[in-house]
Structure formats: C-alpha cells, structure tokens
Amino acid sequence: MRSLLLTLAVLVALPASAQGAQYRAQTGTFALTGCRIETVTNGVIERGTVVIEGGQITAVGTASAPAGAIAVPCAGGTVYPGMIDAGTRLGLVEVGSVEETQDVDEVGDVTPQMRALTAVNPSTIHVPITRVSGVTTTLSVPEGAMMPGTAALVNLHGYTPEQMAAGFEGVVLNFPLSGRRGRFDRREQSAIDEATKKAMEALDEVWEQALLYARIDSARAGRGAMPYQPEMAALLPVVRGEQALLVEANAAADIVKAIEWLDGKGVRAILTGAAEGWRVADRIAEAGLSVITGPVTGLPTRASDRYDRTYQNAALMAQAGIRVALRTDDRMQNYRNLPFHAGFAVAYGQEVGFDRQAALEAITINPARILGVDDRLGSIEVGKSATLFIADGDPFEPATSITAVFIDGYQIPLVSRQTELFDEYLRRDPGLSMDGE
Amino acid sequence: MIRTLLFTLLAVAATAQTPLDLPPADARGSVLLRGGTVHTVTGGTLEAIDILVTDGRIARIGQGLEAPRGVTVVDVTGRHVTPGIIDAHSHIALSSVNEASNPIVAEVQMRDALDPADVGIYRALAGGVTTIHTMHGSANPVGGENETIKLRWGTLDPDGLLFEGAPRTIKFALGENPTRVHGRGRGIRPATRMGIEQVYREAFTEARAYRAAQDAAREARQPLPPIDRRLETLADILSGDVLVHCHSYRADEILMLMRVFEDFGIERLTFQHANEAFKVAPELAAFGAGASVFSDWASYKFEVYYSSAYNATVLTRNDVRTSINSDDAGLLRYLTHEAAKTQRYGGLSDDEALALVTLNPAWQLGIDDRVGSIEVGKDADLAVFTDHPLSIYARVDLTYVDGVARFDRARDGDDQRLFVDPEEEVMALPSRSDAHSASCMLGTDLYELAAGE
C-alpha cells in the first residue's frame, strides 16, 4: 500500500520535474570530460576536459573537474565553439508569407535608427530549432531600402533582447543595384541607368548630411543638444569609424562600385553577400575588406557560370587572401543548416585550398573577428564565453548528432517544437482513424 | 521569321560546340564501371563491384567483368555508384508553370511547355539527378498534366526528354495557394478548404456523368457527345489512367482528399510537400498513398508553421512510401544531401535514406520497373560520387542517363549552355532568392505583382 502511494507520488511528481529539466536551460559549474576538443584557434586536443564556471570557459585540456561540478561526459564526442550564422532574419520574421509576423523592413529609405535588437523575438520557435543544432549565435539583419536599419548579433538564449545581445551592432547599407533586379524587371536600360544614378546621388547626399551632422556635433562638443535627427544620430558612429557598416553588394560591378565608394571614407566596412565575389576577389582583397558570404548552396548568378561557382565562392575569395565568414541568409529560416553550407564549401573548395579547418573558421572565429567579438566567441579558449556544443561526429556531416549545447554557460535543453512533434507523432496514439468517422 | 531562323542557327552552332559533344537524345550508351562501391538500394551495398552497361541498360553486376569489344572501361575504384537521383517534384525545364485562369485546368499539359535548353537541367545532372517529374503549378485545385522526363542534356528537341512509357500524372493543389488565387484573388470558389473539397466532388461527379453518357452512346450505337478535354482527363483520373500528385500541407486537407478519392474509387495518390503528412501517417499508410516531402522546409507560409524536419522519418517508420523532393532549381542539385538529413532527424539507415531520392520517387511516378535501383535489366541511369553519397563531402563526378555520360566533371566547361540567346538579359541577381511560394506560383497574377517590384 505504502509502495503504491509512493509510486503514485512519483508519477505525479515526475512530469513537473521532468518538464523543468527538459525545457529550461540550467547553469552552474560543468565539467565536460573525455572530450575531443577542436579549439579552432589552438589545434585539436585528442582527449581532454573543458570546465565551465560562471558562464565562462575556465579550463581547457588536462584540468580536473572542480568539486561539485556537474559532469557532462563527452562519450567520445567532440567539443566545438558555437557556430555563428552571420546573416539571418532570425527573430525578425516568424512566418515568411504572413506580414503581421514580420518586423524586418521598416518604412523609409534611410532608417539606420531602426534596431534589429528591438524586434528580435526571444520567444520565436526558430530560436530553439536553430540552437539545438549547435548554431548558437546569429546576426539578425533588417532588410529593405538603402539603409534599412541596424543589425544585431544575438545569442540564442535569453528572455529579453538585452539578455540575447552578443556584443555587435552594425548599420546595414544595401548598396545601390546597378543592374536589373530580376527576370521580371522589364525596365528599359536607360530607365535602369537613370535609377542607378539617382540612387547613387541619394546615397552620396545622405553621406554628406551625415558628415555635416558629425562636424556640427564635434564643433559643439557637448555644448547644447543637437537637433533631433535620429537617422543622422544613428550614422554618427558609422561616419566616425566607431561602428561597422555592413555593405550588401552581390553583382561584381556593384562590389567594385562599393569598394570605390568606400575608398577614403575611413569607414569600418564589412562586405556582405558578395555572390559574385569570386569574380573580383583581388579587388576585395586589395581593399582589405572582410566578407560575410552565402548562401553557399545558392544558384549561380548567371546562366553562363559554372554550376559550382556558388559552392566555391567562399573558397576562391579565401584563396585571394580575404577573411571570409559564412551566412545562410535562408528564406526558409533554416539557419540550422549553417554547418552544411560549410561542408559544401569544403566539398567543392578543397581543390583550391579551402579545407575543413578553413570552413570551421568561417563559421566560428572568422565571424567573431569580423564582428569584433572574438574576445568572447569563436573558439574554445580559457576566458571566453562558454558558448559551445558537443557533437558525436563531424558536425558538417548530416548523420552527426548534436549531444549538448551551452550558451553563455547555460546548458540548453535539446528540444524544439520540431522534436516535440517527432516525439508525439512517431507512434501516434490513438492510431488509425479513417474508419468510423 | 528571321528571328526564328537566327535562333535555330545559333542553337545548332551552340550544340556543335558543347564541350561534351553530347550525343542525341535517343543515344543509348555502353560502358563498364569498374571497382566501385555500389549502392543498389534494393540489394544492399556491394564493395569493389563492376557494372556492365549495354545499350543503355544494366547488363551485369559482379566482380571481374570483362568489357566487350569497343566498350569503354571507367575505373571508379574508391568511388561510389548510386542509381540516378529522381525528383518527384520540380518546375525546371519549363517555359510556363501555371495556367491559373480556372480552378480546374485538367486539359493543359506541361509537355507543351518543355524547355530542353534550361541550364537547370545541366545543374541537376551535376547533382546526380537523372529523372525529374516537372509539374504544373499550385494555383488550381486541379492543375494541368505533369511530365516525367529524363535529363538528356544536349538535345533541343522537347520530346527527346520524355520518359518513354511513364504513366500520365496530374497536379492537384490544396490549401492557401488555390484559395488565394481564386477565392481571394478573383472572388470565385474556392476561398476555403471547404470549397476545395466541393470543387473536387462536383468535378468528379460531372466527369463520371460525362463518361457514362459516352458509354451509353457507344452501347446504343449513337453519336458520342462533344469531346471535352477537361472532362476527358478527369474521367481518366477516375479510371486510374492518370496518377494524382497533390500539393498539400495540412493534415486535415490530406485526410479530406483521401476521403473524396475513396468515395470516387481513385487509388493512386501521392501527396506533394505534405509538411503535415506525419500527423496522419497511419491513415496515409492505410490508403496506400505516397508522400513526397521537403527535408526541413518550414514557416515560409502559415500552413507550414507546424512542420518538422522529422516528417520523412515518421512517415517511413509508419510504412508510408516517402520521397524527398526539391520543388526548387537550387535544392534539386543536392537531393542526396536532403535525404541524408533524415539520418540526423530520426536516424534512417543508408538504404532507407537513399530510397527517398531513388526507388521511392520512382514508385510514386510509376516507373520503378525501369529506374530507382541498380539491378540487371533496369535503365543505366547512374551517378558516380567521390565519397559516400550521404556524406556532405561527396561530389558527383559522372552522371549517366541511358548509359550516356550527360555530366562529366572532368570535362565540365566554364559555360555549359546549349542555347545562347542573343537577347538574353545578362544580370547578376543578389543571392537572396524569392520565397518558395513564388516558384510554384509562377505565372499567376499574384506572383507577377510581387515579383514585378
């Protein structure tokens, strides 16, 4: 009788505690033991320990676990730094075709004061779906006209945008397109040229205004407030070279024009997109620009291009000496596919020297360096944020499973709506229902 | 007229210059692939095995095979051979996709819109794909007839692509696309999933009456009633001569169509996309319906919000014949990789994963007696990979259709176009592509409006 009561009590208690353990991230002191460790920056440790304390990595290698540490056995798995997708709409778009769920494109041509961090939804289903795959950090990028807003790097754990903020914000510039926008762009060539000229003039005018605003601000040196011009205030740190400008350009001609436009401006520019970067890789390298490129699995931009140009784009740019990071820029919100983009870049890029290590760097330490957060993210090093994951094999391989994920020292539950649907429907109960309806 | 002539001349010139010197569409090749790891799909994985291809067919599979006189030997030691990849859902090689003018357009045929010069064919071959089901769009509850084609790159004759003897198939569509185009776009039925069901019931009732009137006239030796192409095709669906491939997402609409088909005695049915098929897997298995799904697409429309990358695994484990499709010119190039994701999302075996893009789509298209596995007597549609075909590091080196190498990476040139259009716009698009809904809605007013800006 007593044992029956006990059993009942356990049964009643179990769901609550199981749920707590399953759905909420846990923090504390952890010892990841018996691990292969790909540090990214300091080679591979074949068997060692990673200690996590206070949200940071406090030991890597031969250290023993601190007293009271929660043991997380690697069981032959490998520790990697969390992967960084340097170009997404994560948190800004919930459902692709439902406008009410989109906060990615504000009205206006020049709206750099629109901050992605304001609208990144910590509760989106896409956060758990993405992070259980080891993609722990994403750059959420506003879209739209010339300067649609300020992108934000976020870690995929937190209940407020501030808790998610990962230390980088940068203003987006969609560099004016000089060509046709697509198959359905039926404008005359003269109309396209005219539109391009106007767009460049508009960009130059905005820049002149921003420079003027900055000069006045400097001259005033704190004596009295500036007139309320939020878009100019948002550009102030950009024209002063204190904040990065993410310059989106894809066609070879537009990349070259962007390089020429940036010349002498003293801007901390990062080239993004660069779909045809391989065509003008030497020019990009000469300009000293770093590049965030992708999707690797995109189609070639021209019918006459080799079928594998997009797969090789990152490799060809890296070969020219450019620091390259990858992004998924995925319309289906499949940011979890980032490691597969990296894998494709290796499969087709290894013949020009882009090996697995290069690809791993392109989704960890390179984006961290390009975005200026490599003091915290991008490698397994003492003192860095404990943002990492354990995989039971090569994380670029589809058959590999991710067995543990940590973000800022929080152990992330490996559940998402998609795993819940799997658990519920693999063996559905009740079963067949066609009859008797 | 002059322009047409000019095009023809240019086309001929371009064909002659293709780096591969590709043979005509009716060519059937002979080759001995020596020493590869052979993924047969139906008979397991065989190490260090030779495949002898004679006149486009697989003649022998074994060790130490001799090449008959004049047959080229290709050493594939250390490489992997799979059946040619099959895509049950594509829209490439088409000059138009939607006839959106009526909720039912059973009378139109994609065969009339085939474009053999679409460079998408070559790009697909470069991913090991040999057969695709190129489909009408999703604007209508009943769209037009699709076409099953072989990727015989090199021919400019549309009929040269046809998969000889493949069953006729037709496109149906449920949910948001047809209700958006007709109900909300033009104020005619269907505007809801309720309306879609009744469109089918009315159409099949009418087609049944039409065929009955024909039969009665024949019986009575009376003149036949006037031929109606739309009702002819619908009646052919009722008689099982046309297989239905239905664009679908939600579980409830999938159940609805199975009930309608049961009432009208229609048996062969494959649900396309079918993001929520996993929710009604037992019902699909009981009906005997196929499901052709994306590996991991979700959230591009509201009706796919409750999707899961575990869809294919749940379906397979519940005995539903499942394939993974592309519905996309980009994804079409790496279907093996899409299939491989089922090993992360649910742990399917190698053979189960490979069957998703070979034998299972072949079964759904009614061509599994000809393609989809490596067996003696089947068509020599084969892909040679540098690595295990489910590895991310695998690249395709060679793709054979009917024993003819239609893709050869070693001989791949910078520009593989067959057809150089002197008026073609040279444009470099940003890499950001349109949302998925655009491709299968090509040709509808809504798409033109959206894409025009």
Report on this model:
The complex is a heterodimer of chains A (437) and B (453). With 437 residues, chain A is of the alpha/beta class. Chain A starts with a helix and ends in a 12-residue tail after the last helix. Chain A has helices spanning 2-23, 116-119, 126-131, 161-164, 189-220, 230-239, 252-262, 281-286, 309-319, 338-349, 356-362, 365-370, 417-425, and strands at 26-27, 30-38, 44-53, 56-61, 70-73, 78-81, 83-88, 135-140, 149-155, 165-174, 244-249, 268-273, 290-293, 324-326, 388-391, 402-407, 410-412. In chain A, a hairpin with an 8-residue loop joins strand 8 (135-140) and strand 9 (149-155). Residues 4-21 of chain A have low confidence and may be disordered. Chain B has helices spanning 2-17, 119-125, 176-186, 193-219, 229-238, 251-264, 281-287, 311-317, 335-344, 350-355, 359-365, 436-440, 445-452; strands at 31-39, 45-54, 57-62, 72-75, 80-83, 85-90, 129-134, 142-145, 147-150, 168-173, 242-248, 269-273, 290-293, 322-324, 382-385, 396-401, 404-408. Chain B is globular, with a radius of gyration of 22 Å. Residues 1-19, 433-438 and 447-453 of chain B have low confidence and may be disordered. The interface between A and B is large, with 71 and 71 residues.
